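Lesson 9: reading folded outputs for more than one chain in a single document. The general rule is that every protein is listed as its sequence immediately followed by its structure tokens, and records are never interleaved. Here is the first one.
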Amino acid sequence: MVTWQDIVNDEAVKTYIKKADESLIALGYTEHSFTHVGRVAQVAGEILTTLGYPDRVVELAKIAGYLHDIGNVVNRVDHAQSGALMAFRILDRMGMDPEEISTVITAIGNHDESTAFPVNAVAAALILADKTDVRSSRVRNHDFSTFDIHDRVNYSAKESHVTVEKDAYIELNLTIDTSVCAVMDYFEIFIERMVLCRKAAEKLSLKFRLVINGQTIL
């Protein structure tokens, strides 16, 4: 049985994650390296654990979370689909059962907001974990005068917490520095992602809540 730890320890996976992030550095994107994919894997697993999903489903969500951005090594465009194909080759090589492979690659192929949909619980958990990873440490541009809106939104986030209340809601609670980024700036760039989070929460029979500086926005 292929485990999340097997994926983390795999040298090919390490290379793809490293090289994918190098491409995004060149393109000026925020951090998408081991910290991001590790956090997404952990939060996706925690969401499904809290909701009482079987341990193996939780493990598949963590695997999908760790592999979800490897397609960036090919190109940022359609990286979810290319990442799903790469994950198929990796997991097939490692001997994972086809039904489990299908669950993982479906989640990966449906995580980018341009084409995403929470088609199953693993996909929903991956979407929620990925889209709620907002933190200042993701910003790699150290020249504030050249910040774009992506930099400002992430840099402004001083605290970020994801909370799950079984049979009720999943909440992203942010504390942002409004001198760096206005709340409306956050909405300009994240509204599509937050709508997707709402759909993902509904797939898990939850409501999605966004709280910024103590105020419930969604």
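And here is the second record, again sequence then tokens.
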Amino acid sequence: MSELYYKSTRSEGIKMTASQAILQGLSKDGGLFVPESIPQLDVSLQDLSRMNYQQIAYEVMKLFFTDFTEEELKKCIDRAYDSKFDTKEIAPLVKKGDAYFLELFHGATIAFKDMALSILPHLMTTSAKKNGITNDIVILTATSGDTGKAALAGFADVEGTRIVVFYPKDGVSPVQKKQMVTQRGANTHVVGIYGNFDDAQTGVKMIFNDRELEKELDEAGFQFSSANSINIGRLVPQVAYYVYAYVTLLANGAVKEGEPMNVVVPTGNFGNILAAYYAKNMGIPMNKLICASNENKVLFDFFRTGTYDRNREFILTSSPSMDILISSNLERLIYLITGENAEQNKKFMDDLSSVGKYTLPEEMKAKLADFCGYYTDEEGTAEIIRETYEKENYIMDTHTAVAAHVYKQYCEETGDTTPTVIASTASPYKFTRSVMAAIDAKYNEEEDFALIDKLHELSGVAIPQAIEDIRSAEVLHKTECEKEEMVDTIKKFLGVK
């Protein structure tokens, strides 16, 4: 197999192996790492349909991570997708109504981020050994709720690593916050910032681009990397579950080989739906990639108009992991539709940074035809939770509900009957009050933890261990800071003067 190298979305001449790109996280020019080409699956769909999740993950990842040996990669996969997941299938595909729900929340922190963050620490430590790294790797992450806990759980007490997670102090659910601030591990640090997710994400990107700080930390024996979906080691493992979803439909007779599926993805930072786009380009038959937004509908407007404009009110919703106005992973798609023109892409990103928007010319806008954007409001989110519970006796979380309601709109508007997979991105137990209040308004006044047992009674689904673990857990992380204090906070954690 020929070596696949990675380049930056913002400048020419950068060429890295997969392990180097995973270690660095973000390119030094501020760009994101992308493969020089998207590889084609080299195993037939029929053969894939006879494989389990771990085997499919290997067939996908071996094509992207070509400087890992078979033994190294299989060891990473086996350590990641093990008994941490509460179902043998890892990502069950469940038919409810006219759609198939791809349940991506059966990992240790009951959100889809586990699908990639269970393997990233193993990819990272393997990459460090391959490249002779002696510094401690400092994982620096901004979270809108789920990435933080999944990254903390993955990296807790992993030798040679530290992890610092910044989250918007008032912008995550009570369960999400409790999951993070009770995290054990001598190498874990959690910080609530006074601001929203975009403030946290922008701060983290600025820190990655601070060359003086990089030098200072290197002298102290540290180097930064990222666990956000800007890291290619986060994105590639997500491609695997879309391949798995299609070949599961094939094995079940829901599609014939070559017949397409649609996917609907609740979208904030754009990584999850970009993974579906990569799967399509690897050879998975797909029709539409339906991008589902909540009331922070910056992506809906982008796909409708060709203008990406973050100059708008930031709205706190019941689907906080999607409360995002700067969708970082969209840059990888923009780079592709510019014809991999790093200079043009950099101009768009500079415009987004300086004036808060950019507009695609018509010929580029035409290259977005694989995608379509829809959004739903809080009322629609609650309505579909209640409706699905009453009709199907199935309870979904608020983010999945955004996607389910968008799918309903899409079907009404298009009449498309293509078999459709909805990415179900979190357990309803993460958002108990919002979910329960959607089913019956009487629960609206109760707090999240008080409703856990009632949700169990209604759903018949066992209370996940992740929830049981935090109900009475001690709060270990109490640090809060202004967004301007993020660097000083990190240095304090690391003992760097």
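What the second record shows: The radius of gyration is 21 Å.
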